[in-house]
Design brief:
Number of strands: 3
CATH topology: Gyrase A, domain 2
GO cellular component, one term: RNA polymerase II, core complex
Strand content: 15-25%
Protein name: DNA-directed RNA polymerase
Helix content: 40-55%
Strand order of the largest sheet: 1-3-2
Number of helices: 2
Pfam families: RNA_pol_L_2 (PF13656)
CATH architecture: 2-Layer Sandwich
Structural class: alpha+beta
Radius of gyration: 23 Å
Subcellular location: Nucleus
InterPro entries: RBP11 (IPR037685), RBP11-like (IPR036603), RBP11-like_dimer (IPR009025), RNA_pol_Rpb11_13-16kDa_CS (IPR008193), Rpo11-like (IPR022905)
Length: 107
């Protein structure tokens, strides 16, 4: 079992590469994580992960992906909640009745 592996991820770029590499660097069993894009016109990302041997690089990558999916899922739910509250508040302001006019008193 090797503690260093390279992974090719197709149809991805710096956005995912940087996100994964930086998240992996924070993992306690990951010694090194980095990525490269061979050419800007080739949509593939190469990521290299080295661990301390207590977990495999594949386990580190899968764990990081699961954590990121959970983290951004929570962010999406919080965003939707805040958006709904904002829309509800905006409806209250529009129906507030500040007097005549076609615009409800707002010009």
């Amino acid at each position: 079992m090797s503690n260093t592996s390279d992974f090719k991820i197709l149809k991805e770029d710096h956005t995912l590469g940087n996100l994964l590499a930086e998240h992996l660097k924070q993992a306690p069993h990951v010694l090194m994580a980095g990525y490269k894009i061979a050419h800007p016109n080739v949509p593939e990302l190469m990521i290299r992960i080295q661990t301390d041997g207590s977990i495999t690089p594949r386990e580190a990558l899968v764990g990081a992906c699961k954590q990121l999916v959970a983290m951004y899922g929570q962010l999406g739910r919080e965003f939707q909640k805040e958006l709904a509250l904002r829309q509800y508040a905006d409806q209250g302001e529009q129906g507030g009745g500040n007097g005549g006019g076609a615009n409800g008193g707002h010009y």
